[in-house]
Amino acid sequence: MGERITVNASVREQHSHGEGSGLIGMPDLVAFAETTEEVSKLVALAHARHLPVVAFGTGTSLEGHVSAIEGGLTIDLSRMDRILEVNPEDMDCRIEAGVVRSKLNEYLRDQGLFMPIDPGADASIGGMCATRASGTNAVRYGTIRDNVLGLTVVMADGRVIKTGGRVRKSATGYDLTRLFIGSEGTLGIITEIQLKLHGIPEAISGATCQFESMAAAVQTVIEVMQAGIPIARIELLDESQMEACIAYSKLTGFEVLPSLFFEFHGTQAGVREQAEVAESIALDNGGRAFAWATDPEERNKLWKARHDAYWAARAMRPTYGAFVTDTIVPVSKLTEAVLGVKAAIVDAGLLAPMVGHVGDGNFHTVILVPPEDGGQERAWTLDRKIVEIGLSLGGSCSGEHGVGRGKRDFLVREHGEETIEVMRMVKAALDPSGILNPGKLLPDRVGQN
Amino acid sequence: MGERITVNASVREQHSHGEGSGLIGMPDLVAFAETTEEVSKLVALAHARHLPVVAFGTGTSLEGHVSAIEGGLTIDLSRMDRILEVNPEDMDCRIEAGVVRSKLNEYLRDQGLFMPIDPGADASIGGMCATRASGTNAVRYGTIRDNVLGLTVVMADGRVIKTGGRVRKSATGYDLTRLFIGSEGTLGIITEIQLKLHGIPEAISGATCQFESMAAAVQTVIEVMQAGIPIARIELLDESQMEACIAYSKLTGFEVLPSLFFEFHGTQAGVREQAEVAESIALDNGGRAFAWATDPEERNKLWKARHDAYWAARAMRPTYGAFVTDTIVPVSKLTEAVLGVKAAIVDAGLLAPMVGHVGDGNFHTVILVPPEDGGQERAWTLDRKIVEIGLSLGGSCSGEHGVGRGKRDFLVREHGEETIEVMRMVKAALDPSGILNPGKLLPDRVGQN
Ligand SMILES: Cc1cc2nc3c(=O)[nH]c(=O)nc-3n(C[C@H](O)[C@H](O)[C@H](O)COP(=O)(O)OP(=O)(O)OC[C@H]3O[C@@H](n4cnc5c(N)ncnc54)[C@H](O)[C@@H]3O)c2cc1C
Ligand SMILES: Cc1cc2nc3c(=O)[nH]c(=O)nc-3n(C[C@H](O)[C@H](O)[C@H](O)COP(=O)(O)OP(=O)(O)OC[C@H]3O[C@@H](n4cnc5c(N)ncnc54)[C@H](O)[C@@H]3O)c2cc1C
């Protein structure tokens, strides 16, 4: 592989961490693979030498997922970025794992198709599969889990398998596709993905609505979901996040108040109907009249602001660190969860703007971490408190960011020791020498470290 | 467990086979479990004695799934039929595995909710999970895979685990839920299920449309799907199946011609809009005007006829056996697949009415098996030919009925030896002594039997 495999210090440093988490783990080597065969050979070599292997997409994961905490080889997949096949009649495509979503969607636009999964960052689709990513559109289109038809995977010993296929459903054998989705590079390295696509809707409309209280905004979300409106996006930003976005993205016409951003997809008539129902629910809950963002440019500006929410939050305290939390609860518990988390933030005396894909019950805060001594500990304490609130309401400690290193310690609490033990049995079966992304996802057994 | 565990011959016989497949395998014992704890104790006992264990829902599976081909203990779950919890605000419920879908939907109706997965038979939800079932509504609502939030599972050694949870999505750990879905009782026994529910749509309308040729009917399906209409059901019946249904279900106003049955779900306006687009596509393809089935009674009669298609086909030749095939291809290949299969039926000189959930590319034939010598072989040869057509078009050997005993030999062809080997690794990890439904789903290794 010549220059595509390197010990260069700055390349290793770039691959030693993701976003957000402070965890650093320098790989000994970084290889930029270009084919499945190369990945297979690299993994086979690493396997023979008991060398840890970490897959690297775009490194936007937030829980220390990509840090090579035991050193070894990091395989960067960003050069595996070919779109191999698009089948417009079947609305599917086959791509390499390093393709990022913006590139795929640009490529597909002329064919009237799109891939709806939309984490804030311009992540690789392989990384999105590995973290079971979702994002703003998941309330309508599902997560990446629901949109993958099949995978090509390099196993821990270098063998290459294909899972799933091109058909929309199949009942023939274990669902290995779903087993690799969300496995965070600990069971195999995904090199190709067969993806479901969706038709770009005939009509799209966007709107925003502001509320005097978080409770009113959240109640609106709950009622919109219960009304069965097939809403494409429904995002909540608290007053603090709105303040950040107004400043960072130069949004006009907004007050510093809790806000909902809506998007409706469908036919002209369908979109109108959905929006009317949603607006009347919002008004009933004391929301202001909808501010419409009908032309694409205005709508893009709004969603760009939403996607930049993390950067906007960080810009509030440029010298601070940032730590993103990720809670999800059943929608009926959303008010209790959101208000509980807001109170916890106040108690902690920290600034932590809140933003969320609330149609699923999923929301984040960006805890701005004071640079002073003890700042990191205060942020972690708040994060634990937030997880605690979510779990106590029947939720999960991560709706979409995944486990990585950061959430490992909550897994037993969430799933129970026996369930985690079954996950360990699967891991041991597929990666017996434990070379794939060691120290991630699965918590250590008690008494082990 | 007293009388709930039995060696009674007729009970054992009832549990020795499912529908359709001729495979008989008598269990030595049948136990009617009433709680997860009982299942756990039974499995732990069987584990200690190396006794095979077969889970039994309602025994409607078609590929010899439930036959106790190595004897042992069959655990009948039909008495575990409690609906444990319904959360209307979150549109989910928790049920025991033996609940059948008609019972669940009757229970939910008053709350305006329903569980859309709808295999023809009134199967248990546990059995549906175990076979990754789908049915007429899957084109809109997904398969059972997409509608399960979490499971309680008894593992091969008797330990009990919970997978998933109540939230709509989560990124915390391996997707064990999906691993058990479709595992046909070979990895664990499902005792409880947390299910997503859906709101009964505000408006439902049904229609049928008849065509001069299969090609025209199939082309209509392809175009309806490509138009992105969120159709709830689109079922194809060939002229032979229509002949059977007209006779068996006393349908009036139909000719013996290829037909499509449609159902539209949505708001009043949405349903009207969907139906208009679908009708105009049908007319463009030479279909007759839609015959509307707007009142619920008429619609139910139609869908009852559709669900009775298997019995209607069998009634054409009461002395014959019956063997159901199950093919799925990418929708763009549907015409080629359907016409190829029709030609193969003619070549075989057999009667095999065709019916299918064609919106997914999935269709069945009911091969009527002549009672004479060699009849069974002719049916199997035709089945192999049909599988061959599906696989050669990028399809799967089973869209929804599963593998059981009958489809095992096609799995390597469909997935490749390496992929099957990874499935075997998972099986060996979770059921090391191989007591769970032995001889099913996974093909034997070459040279093994
Ligand atoms: C500002 C911001 C906003 C975000 N918003 C969202 C959001 O809304 N929703 C959401 O879900 N996430 C969000 N994220 C998190 C992140 O974007 C996702 O986790 C994303 O899926 C990671 O993709 P990646 O290519 O960057 O993966 P990486 O960070 O490179 O890797 C993530 C993990 O996957 C593994 N991996 C990567 N590629 C492969 C592969 N081909 N095969 C096997 N394993 C692999 C890695 O080893 C690692 O464990 C956000 C992140 C940021 C910085
Ligand atoms: C007329 C007719 C029409 C049909 N139409 C369809 C259709 O449209 N779509 C479709 O998908 N299927 C269809 N089927 C097939 C069948 O109804 C489904 O496979 C159904 O899901 C089987 O459920 P069951 O409760 O009868 O399972 P069973 O037949 O009792 O068992 C099936 C398999 O699952 C295992 N199993 C059962 N319960 C459990 C449990 N709780 N835990 C673990 N393993 C378990 C068994 O060991 C066995 O391997 C049809 C069958 C008939 C007879």
TrEMBL record, chains A, B:
Residues 23-200 form the FAD-binding PCMH-type domain. Its EC number is 1.1.2.4. GO terms for molecular function: D-lactate dehydrogenase (cytochrome) activity; D-lactate dehydrogenase (NAD+) activity; FAD binding. It comes from the Bacteria. Keywords: FAD, Flavoprotein, Oxidoreductase, Transit peptide. One of its GO terms (biological process) is lactate catabolic process. Its cofactor is FAD. The keyword Iron does not apply. It is an enzyme of class 1 (oxidoreductase). The keyword Oxidoreductase applies. InterPro entries: FAD-bd_oxidored_4_C (IPR004113), FAD-bd_PCMH (IPR016166), FAD-bd_PCMH-like_sf (IPR036318), FAD-bd_PCMH_sub2 (IPR016169), FAD-linked_Oxase-like_C (IPR016164), Oxid_FAD_bind_N (IPR006094), Vanillyl_alc_oxidase_C-sub2 (IPR016171). Belongs to the FAD-binding oxidoreductase/transferase type 4 family. This is D-lactate dehydrogenase (cytochrome). It comes from Acidisoma silvae. The lineage of its organism: Bacteria, Pseudomonadati, Pseudomonadota, Alphaproteobacteria, Acetobacterales.
